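INPUT
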Amino acid sequence: MADVEVASALTPVEPPASKSRSSWRSIGVIVVLVGVVVVLLSQGLLSSLNYFETVDQALGQRTSLGTKVIRLEGVVEPGTISRTNSGASFTLTGSGTHHVFVTAQGSPPQLFQANIPVVVVGHFVSSTSLRFAGTQIMVKHSSSYIAAHPNRVKAPNGTSR
Amino acid sequence: MIKLSQRLLGPVTLLLLGLTFWLGLWITPPDAVQGNLVRLLYVHPPIAWVALYVSFGTASIASCLYLWKRTRSEVMDRIAHCSMEVSVVFIALTLITGSIWGRPTWGVWWAWDARLTSTAILGVFALAYLALRRANDDPTLRARRGAVFAILTAINVPIIHFSVQWWKTLHQGASVLTSNGTLNVHGSMLWTMLIGFVGFTLLFFWLLRYRYRLEVKRDLKVADTVVEALALRQREGV
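OUTPUT
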């Protein structure tokens, strides 16, 4: 047993890897890295640094957009939400008097409600129409966090009033 | 003093994280819009803070100090390496907790917007750093290349931070580190989040300390193995 250990300890070991071998491996890592980053960029940033077009911007480019699929952002106008079997319809407003009527397929997110900014994936029905056919609704919530009932006080028995 | 703070690091970290979870789950009120979904606020931003600024910052500073001849040492290289390893964990947690929050709030698990994509790229950079270190057998070459790479990839951190200001993103803007210095979080929700920031920052340094000690032990074991092998050969009269 001891002979085996001595024999293995005396077995000639490989010389340390050369500098050029390490360099080739490093180049390999960099090449793979560049490939992965390019794939991620092509999925995300390169297609559009801006994730959506606002209602104002979209209406300003109506003719050039045509029926191209875009992401449209605006605020859901109160009193216009109508839930349907296949989804929901509502009016999106931009600044001022710009409005777009949206009919979206699929169930809206949990936070979907009036007065909330949303991003709708879809396209204008025609190059002159103000009707937008959506396939997905995303809620763009704000960075403000406000307590639901800030004025409530706790009673001595522990209940809220 | 240093030994005492090292000894207290673990218990204080656990105390602050426990406090964050207790306040976040039972004491703080629901949000006016998000309801109980807001409770992820006490976990996701603090984890992202550690992933982007604390861990990548530590790795970059240690890398700079390694490249500077006057402060060059194995210690700096080890700190950079260990920080980057812990960073991978925190970046993964950032993306996971963000997705869990994104599904019910946005309606999607993932969106290819500037903030999310650039954060994913940072994760790839951190993994590439670790791969680059494994690709180099020579310790000096490994440390130097790693340090240069860590500094270069840190350029992505300000891009991630300002992405929500520079471009239109689905991800909301900053709630604490805002451009005009305002705080967009209400009362006890803010305090709970700030305790979370401190707790997760300490967790990073706690993990870094243990990872560093492990690395030192590993290096010592390698050195002992070499000494033992030489002694064995000498005894055999080689």
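end of record. Chain A has two domains: 17-47, 53-139.
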